[in-house]
Amino acid sequence: LSECCRQYVNSEQRFSLTCGKPLRTLGVAGDYHIIQLIQEDQSSLTQLAWKDGKTVLLKTLASKWMGHPEVAEQFYQEARRLLALNHPTLPRFIDVFLLQGQPYLVMEPIFGQTLQHVVAKNGAFDPTEAIAILLEICGALNYLHHQIPPIFHGAIQPANLVQRIVATTTQWVITGFMPGSGVTPSLLASTAYTAPEQKQGQVSFAADLYSLGITLVYLLTGKSPDGFYMQGEQGRSFDAASVPNLPSELLPIIQKLTNPQPEQRFASAEELADALQRISSVQV
User: What is the pLDDT of residues 182-199, one digit of tens each?
Assistant: First the structure.
């Protein structure tokens, strides 16, 4: 520790009030000082880190993928593509680097409550509010899907939508990006929000729209979507008709979004946004 930091050794401060440096670290990754483990799952490791007076998020592959250089290369190449993105409802991607063959993605931390936390605390949204949130997410997905080649998120769900307050306005920011999942779908955990074809390794814009449809159901009901799946001849599928109290104007939109056949869904996030806007001025 530097001289200015020593005075805080026995304090509860995490950063020096004099120079701003972290007082306790878990280690380093390149030039980044690891401050805290944020999340660890079967596919990835996310940590809070510090460099040059700024805190960032470091995302890398979980240890189970360490012996798979092809997965590391896919992560690295897709992470590099994220650096060019610039959209208000996406985090800012700052850097990508390799350290002993391990790829790291550096991104802006988004502080705020997830949509999952907001619904758990306050209950379901009314239809007008739910549509407004979906329109924000549609804008970001439309931007991602129109990249060349397209970028698919692959894990749209309430836990990956964070409420960021800027001045007096609120933005919903898409987080939970996992580079490489487009070509290695096993990097993503399968949930009730995952499109059926994605579970078979097919990731596309249609899969993101499916996840958005299930998210809409969660917004309107405040309940886990697991209970609205049914077992049929074609396997387990989402049954929008079993969701209680869905507004009649939104039911066909949700049915189309959650159709088990990708080609039967909306042709784009833009087309979905148009359909939502047509009914947003109507009392639903």
Answer: 777 778 888 999 999 999
Evaluated on CA atoms 59, 61, 66, 68, the torsion sign reads: negative
* pTM of the shown model: 0.89
Angstrom distance (rounded) from CA 147 to CA 203: 15
pLDDT band for position 261 (50/70/90)? Answer: very high
DSSP line for the chain: --HHHHTTTTSS-SB-TTT--BSS-SEEETTEEEEEEEEE-SSEEEEEEEETTEEEEEEEE-GGGTT-HHHHHHHHHHHHHHTT---TTSPPEEEEEEETTEEEEEE----SEEHHHHHHHH-PPPHHHHHHHHHHHHHHHHHHHTSSS-------SGGGEEEEEETTEEEEEE----TTTTT-GGGSPP-TTS-TTGGGT---HHHHHHHHHHHHHHHHH-S-GGGGEEEETTEEEE-GGGSTT--TTTHHHHHHHT-SSGGGS-S-HHHHHHHHHHHHTS--
Q: Which two tokens stand for residue 189?
A: 């955990």
Averaged over 105-117, what is the pLDDT? 96
Per-residue pLDDT, 180: 86
β-bridge partners, 37: 47
Q: What is the mean pLDDT of residues 160-173?
A: 90
178: left (phi over 0), alpha (psi -120 to 50) or beta: beta
